[in-house]
Amino acid sequence: MAAYGAQVQDELQKTLLEETGDIVIKQNIPRVLRQIANQVSIDILLEALDQVHPALQYPIIKALNKLHQDPSLHIDEKRIHTSLIHEAQTYYEMQTIRQLSWVVSPSTQLLIRSLSDKQHRSLELMFRLMGLLYPPQDIQNAYEGIISRDVSLRASAVEFLDNLLDHTINRYLFSVLDQISVEDTIDKGRDLFGYRLESTDQALSHLIQGRDIWLKTCAIAAITGNEPDLVLTAIHQAMHTGAPLVRETAAMMLARLAYAGTQGL
Questions:
Q1: What is the average per-residue pLDDT within 150-178?
Q2: Distances 30 to 20, 36, 48, 261 between C-alpha atoms, Å
Q3: What is the CA radius of gyration of the chain?
Q4: Between these two residues, 123 and 1, which has the higher pLDDT value?
Q5: Distance between alpha carbon 36 and the CA centroid of its chain, in Å?
Q6: Other Cβ atoms closer than 10 A to 177
Q7: pLDDT tens track for 35-70
Q8: Exposed e or buried b for every residue in 1-29, given b needs 16+ CB within 10 A?
């Protein structure tokens, strides 16, 4: 496919951005574009970055990292800043939702593990994005320091990034990187983005209406039937999503709730 070069780029872009379609096929499009090393490939990937399903962001950023090795190709730094801020918001939200008072059950435990995985992926994506703005090896070293259990190594990485990052970005990322406490991180996220997720009901509704298919599915599966109307409304809306897994899970949950209702449960 890559051998066709510029003549297939329009079709690749159209397929990548369409709301429906096979997610596996879409995940391979960035790999094709990174082998067509021209400015159009970079522009297509940058445009798609904040529009596509979250599962496509990693291969897109990976492709951008590869193309960025060519000094003749230009990366729009403003778009990278926007994506960094978006990933920071995702990180803060995942942290906030994880700390809510969840009723312990297999479904909520799966949801919390999935939230943790999403949080770790957001952190990795932030560093991959930073690698498009700053020397990649320096950013890789900093990432290894941030995720290290060595307190001194982590502190050195935080100090390095604090001095390196543009003030605009640092304002959003520093609490993610520093992690003084979970409470401080959550408060910073609320101050920066103004969201209020203060109950599990609000969190479930938020996740079900979100773009992450797996988190939507896990949130629906975590429903107990005692949630308010806003959560049940979100499940009904999920019945119309393009993802079969979400639709099937929503249908099973609604059927279960309907049966429980007929039994007076």
A1: 91
A2: 17, 10, 10, 47
A3: 20
A4: 123
A5: 26
A6: 22
A7: 999 999 999 999 998 888 888 999 999 999 999 989
A8: eeeeeeebbeebbeebbeeeeeeeebbeb
The pTM (predicted TM-score) of the whole model is 0.86
Query: Cα–Cα distance between 42 and 6 in angstroms, integer?
Result: 12
Handedness of CA 51, 124, 112, 173 (dihedral sign): negative
What is the distance between the alpha carbons of residues 43 and 240, in angstroms, rounded to a whole number?
31
Q: Say which CATH class 2-75 falls into.
A: mainly alpha
Alpha helices in the chain (DSSP H): 9-17, 23-34, 39-49, 57-67, 77-98, 106-130, 136-146, 151-164, 167-178, 182-193, 200-208, 213-221, 229-238, 244-262
pLDDT of residue 264: 52
User: Cβ contacts of residue 227 below 8 Å, gap of 6+?
Assistant: 201, 204
Helices 39-49, 9-17: axis angle to 10 degrees equals 10
Q: How far apart are CA 225 and CA 263, in angstroms?
A: 13
Give start-end residues of each CATH 1.25.10 domain in the chain: 2-75, 199-265
Contact 163, 134 (CB under 8 A): no
Percent of the chain scoring above 90 in pLDDT: 61
Per-residue pLDDT reduced to its tens digit, 211-251 = 899 999 999 999 988 888 888 889 988 888 778 899 999 99
Which residue would you say has higher pLDDT here, 4 or 98?
98
Indicate the class that CATH gives domain 199-265. mainly alpha
